[in-house]
Write a structure and sequence with these properties.
About 45% of the residues lie in helices and about 10% in strands. Strand 2, helix 7 and strand 3 form a beta-alpha-beta unit. The N and C termini lie far apart (about 40 Å). The protein has eleven helices and six strands. The chain has a six-stranded parallel beta sheet, sandwiched between helices.
Length: about 270
């Protein structure tokens, strides 16, 4: 675990952002509130599963401690290990009914897809304004997410055409990249932008994602506290933590209206 360092002020953080050449955004919990949909889906999976195995009940704290930001099957393994349980890995094609790591992960994904289809998703207004601002300032942008549903979520939120570069769980698997907290996916995203890690800002809400940005030695690791706690994000290696990316506006030279919106699907 990285030791916490002195937080940057909003002005210092804005200067660091404008001194960079690219911004790499996590998706769930940073650009869109889909972390809430994920939390609900994980609870629907593990609440009955852990009860059946007569171990400590599932809570939201388990999501932040063992699942948040990690590739789906890694999250399953981590949560099971926290209860002294293990299952065969199985195969990614396993039916959701199978009691394998992949089967449980696919069961969770089925619940997530059903909720997303029913309720839709809209981007965080402050994150959208920040995205508009960094693009207006001339920075390149990309999405780096562990989610296998990244493309679907971006499309549902009306953001897909905003990002030429998307490194999601599907792309990471194809490229054989280690998931967060390893830095590989973020380093790959920077490479696709033609930039070095030092030239990029990583924006994350998950402890594992912050650890990924710090391990990759990125120019700025910016935490967004959506519930894990600012102290946890600082301890993981964040340079600064905000509750909403709108706190960093206005960026010098950008004239982004507070009414900027996306053509997202609304709940």
């Amino acid at each position: 675990m990285t030791s916490p360092h002195s937080p940057l002020s909003p002005a210092q953080t804005r200067d660091r952002v404008l001194g960079a050449r690219g911004v790499l955004f996590d998706l769930d919990g940073v650009l869109t509130p889909t972390a809430e949909v994920h939390m609900s889906a994980w609870s629907r999976l593990f609440t009955p599963f852990l009860a059946e195995h007569e171990v400590k009940p599932y809570t939201d704290a388990d999501y932040f401690a063992f699942i948040d930001g990690k590739p789906r099957y890694d999250g399953v393994r981590s949560l099971l290990a926290s209860r002294g349980l293990s299952l065969p890995d199985g195969e990614p094609e396993d039916a959701p009914e199978l009691e394998t790591v992949c089967g449980l992960g696919n069961r969770k994904n089925k619940a997530f897809n059903e909720t997303l289809a029913e309720d839709g998703v809209s981007p965080y207004p402050g994150s959208l304004r920040f995205l508009d601002a960094v693009v207006a300032a001339g920075l390149q942008v990309a999405v780096v997410t562990s989610s296998l549903n990244g493309q679907m979520v971006l499309t549902a939120a009306g953001l897909r055409d905003r990002f030429e570069i998307v490194v999601d769980g599907v792309r990471a698997r194809a490229e054989k990249l280690a998931g967060k907290p390893a830095p590989d996916t973020y380093l790959f995203g920077a490479e696709l932008l033609g930039l070095t890690a030092a030239e990029c800002v990583v924006v994350e809400d998950a402890e594992s994602g912050i650890q990924s940005g710090r391990a990759g030695d990125f120019g700025l690791v910016l935490g967004v506290d959506r519930g894990v706690g600012s102290a946890v994000l600082f301890e993981a290696g964040a340079d600064t933590v905000v509750a909403d990316l709108a706190e960093l506006l206005p960026l010098t030279g950008s004239t982004v209206s507070s009414s900027s919106t996306a053509n997202g699907v609304h709940a």
